[in-house]
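Justification of resources, computational component.

The compute hours requested in this renewal are based largely on the per-chain cost of generating structure records like the one below. Each record pairs the submitted sequence with a full structure-token output. That output is archived, and it is also reused by downstream analysis tasks.
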Amino acid sequence: MTALAPAPSRPVVRLRPGLLLAAVAVAFFAAAALWPALVTARDPLAIDLTRVLEPPSWRHPLGTDPSGRDLYARIVHGARDSLLIGVGATALGMSAAVVLGVLSGLSGRFLDGAINRFIEVLFAFPVLLLALLFVAVFGPGPVTLVVAVGVGTAPGYARMIRGQVLAARDSGYVEAATAFGHSYPRVVVQHIFPNAMRPLAVATTLGVGQSIVWASGLAFLGLGAAPPSSEWGALLDAGRAYMTHAWWLEVFPGVAVVGLALSVTALGRALQRRLEGTHHDG
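The structure output for this chain reads:
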């Protein structure tokens, strides 16, 4: 009697503790941004002059600010503005980069050279200098942060997309499609564009974390939202004058910024490894 061969076991997917922690952190801040009442019942603007600059306690886990407002509630309600600025800046930068990168990769030598010179000019301007320029024109505020960070990060994305377009344009499957008589627009839409856009999911995820850090840093310098905004960079800016005797006003908003940025980056790296593994398996 022939023994039946055991069925092949499925690979066990192990979720690393660090990645699980990152997913929990992102889920928490996403819930705070969408439904802040789920994670705190306190009003972030409620003033209590009897509890000014209280250190962390059971009543106020992250302490209070100079107006007696609960810092935990302010951080929770500030998640929406911080995420919107990070996502908005990344979307703006990525949209501009797609236009520049695709045009550069598909155009002739003259237009490609002109776009590359333009990208190099943008690279020469640090994000801080761009922010100061936009503040001088439009005034400080969250829209200024979105535009400054978006424009400042666009050149790096544009170079990446241009490289992907050039690699796809010179690939064997594009040459085969052309040999079969497919029109150039059809080759671009069906072959070049989809393959060139493949890294965007990972780049966008990583870009959100980067943009949140940039925007919070610029807001810390007074270039972002004005008080009484709960945006995390604005909280950092407001706490500067008290950092020597009210450390929690700087530490906890800073932990929120760094924690969310690192968590989003960790998920982006995990997505990158997943996509690269799928690509190699295919």
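The chain has one domain: 30-40+62-277. The CA atoms of residues 22 and 69 lie 28 Å apart.
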